[in-house]
Amino acid sequence: MQKGIRLFRIADIDIHLDWSLLIIFFLVSASLGAGLFPSWHPDWSVAQSWLTAIAAAILFLASVLVHELSHALVGRAHGMNIPRITLFIFGGMAHLEDEPRTWRVEFWMAIVGPVTSLLLGLLFLWAGSIAAGGLDLQAEDPEEILSRLGPLATLLLWLGPVNIILAAFNLVPGFPLDGGRVMRAILWGVTDDLRKATRWASNAGRAFAWFLIACGISMVFGVQLPIFGTGLVSGLWLTLIGWFLHNAAVMSYRQLLIERSLKGVSVADLMLRDVQTVTPDLTIREFVDNCVMAHQQRAWPVIANGTLAGLVCLEDVRRRPREEWATTALRQILTPVAKLATVQPGDDAIQAFKLISQRGVNQLPVIDDGHLHGLLRREDILRWLSLYGELPGAEGQLQRPV
Q1: The CATH fold of domain 267-388
Q2: 13-17/84-88 β-pairing
Q3: Are 317 and 287 in contact (CB under 8 A)?
Q4: Per-residue model confidence as pLDDT tens digits over 59-112
Q5: In terms of C-beta density within 10 A (0-12 exposed, 13-18 middle, 19 or more buried), how is residue 116 classed?
Q6: Could you say which DSSP state residue 202 is in?
Q7: How, if at all, do strands 299-304 and 91-95 pair?
Q8: Is 41 helix (H, G, I), strand (E, B) or coil?
């Protein structure tokens, strides 16, 4: 996932907003402003319903942020580095640079999120009952009571159950939901095998995802389900959530296998050392004829005075009209080294692989004191993983070349 838009910083943690969050913000606001709140308050104006709905959507997203902050702060207390939190369409994500080191750290990091949402839900219900003047919804006609609530009480009494539902949903024992991470922590503690615990928790997450997908498809075709209800929009939304959880469960297990396979592997072990380089004065025409067409290399380091000046890729060439190739030097189209993500020979391969994924590039220059040592390419890492990596279902220790 990309970083998104940086909003602010809390406790040295960057808070980012993904554009997809606007979808859930619109859906929550629309369902409340045009549906639920007008049914609770027929006498409210359209503006009052929508303003209360927008406030509810904002506070709901703030609740999700508090949920994720609880994960991050507990992880930080146990020595983990969590640089940012991203809010996106399905909630939020605290980005961990490394997996928890022990099952106890995993357990407490995972369980604190649902506990926080539960406490928020109870707090909102308590505050809502005070704002409602102590009205007893059980003793009188609920519809009449709801119609007499003010905007603040309405807002709080909606946020309370929603946060409790959020806590319950996250406790489902399917990885990578919080409940799945709690289950993985317990299995990890019992078996002392993180890989086996992750595989079991991932399978549980996939099973739950398929259950949601099946329920969503049934709802699309008009089946009335307990809790979920029915309807085209609700069914499609549930199917989408199931699809996302399935992919997340598969990718989480795959990421663990990749990290185990690359543990102890350095950039120098994987990088391409025999790299063809070019000079900045070379024209695009000379570069294409003598370099691109003569070698299989996809990116070309540009060397000036013995140090790396930048990188030229085929995409840089394609941006220039062909009639300018004979008169345009590579120095005019290269990406300068200051704008490149680079690594050093002794860096961990797994961190370099994450950097490649985050930056959306296919290679990283390997430099030390400005001097080029090679290129670390995505294909080199994938080749290593295909030869020496752990495959799903394989048992035993990773075998490495000697």
Answers
A1: CBS-domain (3.10.580)
A2: parallel
A3: yes
A4: 998 898 899 889 888 988 888 888 878 877 666 777 776 778 899 998 999 999
A5: buried
A6: H
A7: unpaired
A8: coil
